Amino acid sequence: MSTLRITLGAALLIYGLFVGAYVAALHLAPFPAMLVLGLTAILGFVVNLNYSGFHRMYRDRLMETFMPNAENVRDNKWGPATDADGELIENVCQGETVRPYHLVNTNVVLTDSETSKFRGRGGDSFLLSPLYCGSDATGWRPTSRYMKTDDFIRSCPARGMTLATAMAISGAAVNPDAGVAGKGVTRSKLVSMLMGLLNLRLGYWAPNPKPHLRAWLPPNYIMPGLTSDLLGSGLREDNAAVQLTDGGHFENLGLYELIRRKVSLVIASDAGADPGFQFGDLANAVERVRVDFGVKIRFRSAAGLEEMLPGSAGDSHLGGKYELAKRGYAIADITYHDGSGGTLLYLKSTLTPELPADLYGYKSVNEAYPNQSTGDQFFDEEQFEAYRELGYQLTRKMLDSVVLKQILADSKQKSKEEVEAA
Questions:
Q1: DSSP 289-356
Q2: DSSP letter string over 56-86?
């Protein structure tokens, strides 16, 4: 019923916008009307959508929070993150320093694709990494050649994809034609049209990795803004410009690209709001890697999902009051299509025994904790610490578990045997 109300409200607002525009046009003399129309058309073609919407502001705030300049950290003060603003993702793993290889997961919106799988899912996993960028739908391109000046036939010089922009795209949760796992009210054409008209988007318009597809101009309000938002078409894998959004709009745990690479040990942190413990993000990930890669993920009986449920810790006074779970992690075996195996360590936000007292105290006055709505993006110190400390404690307990130590020991022994056999 709420979806119907939202869709109806969006339709009425769109109607009101068009009526308002019509009434305004009636009160304009012909010459001023043509002048306004011409100016609007010119601005529509030259204004870059990526710079005029919420994406740029969102990116800069994330960059200042998570990628600050070293002197700002040292002096404990806020300041523009000028160093991060120039860091290209292609340069992240260069040099002799050993660093983690970044796999930044995003979603390419493909609601108009002629391929039923992409159209039904609403998109495909689009990867931004130091070596390659792209997806199965659009194809791949070396990062050193992606988003450079020659990606547009006529445009201002482009330097490439920065790590800050990739990070912001990966968290661009609010966007027309996209929703968690490709579902939700924002997939509605009417709701998406309204969001497009009001430029309510955190996503990013990027050039298609296919080298033969080039745009005449950077993404603007006419192309692809008018065609994709107002006309509801053009979100396809063969368009010169593709729209990238939150990786959670395809798969929210970041498992998909790791499973594609047949990683032997995968650690997944599920911190999404899931008060009903429906494991929706996990279910979506398990289903998609099985369909696309033929991979099976099965949880062990000794460390399964049931012991993560509230109330599974027993009937102690504390456990009954706060509905504590026995543990905050589960362990699964991964069977890849070629017969090789791996292990999945799955962490989830849940309260367990033997946590610091302040976490139980925070729960007493915040009933939804640890599944408060992610719509609240303004954490105070108390709320921030409640989640940070919970994550630390659950991870520590997982690493201290006898079951995990045995798994790691078995894995080490297996690797040693494989080396000796080789």
A1: HHHHH--EEEE-GGG-GGGGSTTTT-S-HHHHHHT--S-SEEEEEEE-TTS-EEEEEEEE----SS--
A2: HHHHHHHHHHHS--HHHHHHT-----HHHHT
Helix axes 402-421, 381-400, angle to 10 degrees: 60
DSSP 92-114: TT-SSS--PPP-EEEEEE-TT-S
In this structure, which amino acid lies at residue 43? L
Task: Check: pTM over 0.85? Answer yes or no.
Answer: yes
181: Cα within 13 Å, side-chain hemisphere: 13
Contacts of 182 (CB under 8 A, 6+ apart): 120, 121, 122, 123, 249, 250
Give Cα 359 distance to the centre of its chain: 28
Residue 153, CA distances (Å) to 218, 240, 285, 292 in order: 9, 11, 38, 35
Q: In what order do the strands lie in the sheet with 204-207?
A: 139-142, 132-135, 123-128, 104-109, 241-246, 204-207
How far from the centroid of its chain's Cα atoms is residue 5's Cα? 27
Assess contact for 285 and 252: CB atoms under 8 A: yes
Sign of the CA dihedral with 220 first, then 226, 227, and 230 last: positive
Q: CA 108 to CA 147: how far, in whole Å?
A: 15
- 35-93 pLDDT, tens per residue? 777 887 888 888 888 888 889 999 999 999 899 999 999 998 888 898 888 889 998 87
Residue 32 DSSP SS3: helix
CA distance 144 to 240: 19
Least confident of 54-63, 112-121, 142-151: 142-151
SS3 call for 234: coil
Bin 234: left if φ > 0, else alpha if -120 < ψ < 50, else beta.
Answer: left
* Cα 174 to Cα 180: distance, rounded to the nearest angstrom: 10
Strands 104-109 and 123-128: what pairing? Answer: antiparallel
